[in-house]
Amino acid sequence: MATLLRPALRPLRRLLGWPRPAGDVPLRAGSHGAGLLYPDHIPTSPLQKLLLAAGSAGMALYNPYRHDMVAVLGETTGHRTLKALRDQMRRDPEGAQILQERPRISLSTLDLGKLQSLPEGSFGREYLRFLDVNRVSPDTRAPTRFVDDEELAYVIQRYREVHDMLHTLLEMPTNILGEIVVKWFEAVQTGLPMCILGALFGPIRLSAQSLQVLVSELIPWAVQNGRRAPCVLNLYYERRWEQPLRALQEELGITSPPVDLKGLV
Fold it and tell me: Is the pLDDT of residue 97 over 50?
């Protein structure tokens, strides 16, 4: 049995310590080695994907801050959903342009000086403030590895890289309650299994007070905003830096949170 499983478990071993790609490298088809569709692609069989999905789901539920496991779960369970998201982007002029140009969001592609010089209340300035206050970096997003289609690999990479933009639009912090609220919004928007699992099982670690606020106020608000907003993957965020955050929220149909999350965990 161990001999039979050894080839299937190889991607799990390769996952540990796999080098991160440069954030400004576009995901495109090309010559990346035998069987590789894009940089860092790890070809896997259906059995390997099943094992990766099961293992990453267990780790992600045990520790929601294991973003690497959350990433693996998304790649190994979301093929049909990614195709649907890709098709939505193809049908939208702005989304189609994103698919064609393949922009990346990282410290090497962001002009931090420009963002700092933008007026108070602009989307770019508020995004930069979000990164600073929450001490997060766009470079922490895991590279796509287990999606066996280079265009779909870009779709899920784009989803990861705009995650902090959604925090900014929803005015949500990066504590566990804020992450759960964003996951509910993403679950409605994308239908990705990992978002649905995170939305349903993430609240397990909340205090009774936070759970009550989440169920009674924040989930209904996140679901309503997720249904009302157009597909967030069709927004070319890098071209909206100068736009006032409030104006962008109104354009997308996103309202302010019903409660202040400070003090809630």
Answer: yes
